[in-house]
Amino acid sequence: MYSPDQYIEEKRTINLRKMQLLSWVVAVVALIVYGSAFYSLADDPSANVFAGKSVAGIFWILLGFVGMIAAGICLHELVHGFFFAIFAKNGFKSIKFGVLTKPVFAFYCHCKEPLKRHQYMVSAIMPLILLGILPSVIAVFTSNFLLLLAGYILTVGAIGDVMMIKMLVQEDKNSYVLDHPSEIGFYVLKEKNVER
Fold first, then answer.
1. What DSSP state is assigned to residue 5?
2. 76 in a structural domain
3. Residue 167 counted as domain residue
4. Number of C-alpha atoms within 13 angstroms, CB side, residue 91?
5. In a 3-state reduction of DSSP, which class is residue 157?
6. CB–CB of 99/183 below 8 Å?
7. Of 1, 24, 122, 143, which has the fewest beta carbons less than 10 angstroms from its beta carbon?
8. HSE (CB half, 13 Å, CA atoms) of 187?
9. CA-to-CA separations, 46 to 54, 141, 145, 183, in angstroms, rounded
10. Is residue 136 packed enough to be buried (19+ CB in 10 Å), middle (13-18) or exposed (0-12)?
11. Tens digits of residue pLDDT in 78-123
12. Residue 152 sits in which domain range?
């Protein structure tokens, strides 16, 4: 059971430059993996989503795609919030959504109470699985190129979450994790050494 006076906080944040560099690597790897799967397994990978469409039709397809990406970005944070709320003692009362403007513009979801390490890791990875990988797999088997593209973009967009999980794997499995309120990162709560 977590009690604040028994723990010290150790801050862990993500280096934004490293995240940007790694996102390019992930973008290339995901492009190869998703692209290869799509062109190997899709029923009609060469089907042109714009074939036979008027200029207006193409405009509406592209507008719908942009809307799908915007919705995906918002859903990414909602998925974090949903899983944080499942694990948080006070549920959605402990969840805050907002927008960071510095050092980069980004939507965020913040959990105000500490979670066990594995709970935080599940909450961090679920947007990648539900909005990146799963839609991409569905896209391959339904030959839906736009869904594949959306899944690809949302996979690359989850790089910060993957970096946080990588940091957490190195921490004690029994530790508590407190989400950082204003930076991309968290605090690891380590038990104080109490002399008896």
1. G
2. yes
3. yes
4. 1
5. coil
6. no
7. 1
8. 17
9. 19, 14, 9, 43
10. buried
11. 999 999 999 999 999 999 998 877 766 778 899 999 999 999 999 9
12. 4-191
Its pTM stands at: 0.85
Number of domains in the chain: 1
pLDDT in tens, 132-162: 999 999 999 988 888 999 999 999 999 999 9
DSSP 83-128: HHHHHSTTGGGGEEEEEE-SSS-EEEEEE-S-EEHHHHHHHHHHHI
Place of tokens 């919705």: 71
CB 166 within 8 A of CB 22: no
* Assigned domain for 196 exists: no
164: three-class secondary structure by DSSP = helix
Count of other CB atoms within 10 angstroms of residue 142: 12
Side chain identity at residue 104, one-letter code: V
3-state helix, strand, coil in the chain (%, to 5): 60, 15, 25
Interacting residues of 171 by C-beta distance below 8 A, sequence separation 6+: 117, 177, 188
